[in-house]
Amino acid sequence: MSVLILSDIHANLAALDAVLQHARGYDRIWCIGDTIGYGPRPVETLERMRTSAELIVCGNHDLACVGRLSLVDFNPDARRANLWNGAQLSEQQRDWLAGLAPQLSAEPRFHIAHGSPGQPVWEYLFSPDQALDNLEFFSENHCLIGHTHVQLAFRVDELRGRAERITTHHDLTLDLMDGPRYYVNPGSVGQPRDRDPRAAYALLDLANGTVRFQRVAYDIRLTQRQMLDVALPSALIQRLAYGV
Ligand code: ZN
Q1: Distance 141 CA to ligand 1 centre (A)
Q2: What is the DSSP letter of 83?
Q3: What is the CA(8)–ligand 1 centre distance, in A?
Q4: Which end of the chain is more exposed for a tag (fewer CB within 10 A), N or C?
Q5: How buried is residue 244: exposed, middle or buried, by Cβ count under 10 Å (0-12/13-18/19+)?
Q6: Beta-bridge mates of residue 4
Q7: Per-residue confidence in pLDDT tens, the chain, 244 aa
């Protein structure tokens, strides 16, 4: 059983399409939130996830787009993009998105949280200390997270109270069954921020207990043109080319 793990798609349909084509052979999709916000195709992107994701949580941008989180908490560019994204949605889509939780239990071994198990909407889980501090907030072995837009993992030795950050690279496969607990961040499909502009995702093999990190190039210029057409902020358009 292979699960395609997606996060922070951010209404970037061209990036999502490239990932769906590249991943192939997966049986189900789990989505770690921020499906919309920032990008130019919120309606189509949300519809893809609404109809094909087996499990999905909401992120801070999703909540802001449907008025469940104050726009004051976002910088001006993100605020403008969230307002525009939210205005495109149908009533049915808004209701569906507003009804999602920011974290859930995926199956006995996996917890899913957009930011972190302790603060699922807002915490950026970047450090080993945060990984240790968050252990008390979930009982499953491992946790899938998003929000930082950086593809990475943390390996946690609970008995020794130690955690290490694992820098990922294309095609790295982690064996999750060898003892420690892991946090896995598949990176961002639609707005990577680890200086690699290619769309990021991960494939989780539930039978073997492995996760494989992947990157795929997509038509960045197409997304940039789509953003320009609807007058989204230029800084958001430009950053896609640099992966920042
Ligand atoms: Zn995001």
Answers
A1: 24
A2: H
A3: 5
A4: N
A5: middle
A6: 29, 203
A7: 999 999 999 999 999 999 999 998 899 999 999 999 999 999 999 999 999 999 999 999 999 999 999 999 899 999 999 999 999 999 999 999 999 999 999 988 999 999 999 999 999 999 999 999 999 999 999 999 999 999 999 999 999 999 999 988 778 999 998 789 999 999 999 999 999 999 999 999 999 999 999 999 999 999 999 999 999 999 999 999 999 9
* 212: Cβ contacts below 8 Å, ≥ 6 apart: 171, 172, 173, 174, 202, 203, 205
Q: How far is the CA of 36 from the centre of ligand 1 (A)?
A: 8
Q: Write out the two tokens for 128.
A: 């080993």
Q: Two tokens at 170?
A: 């294309």
Q: How far is CA 175 from the centre of its chain?
A: 21
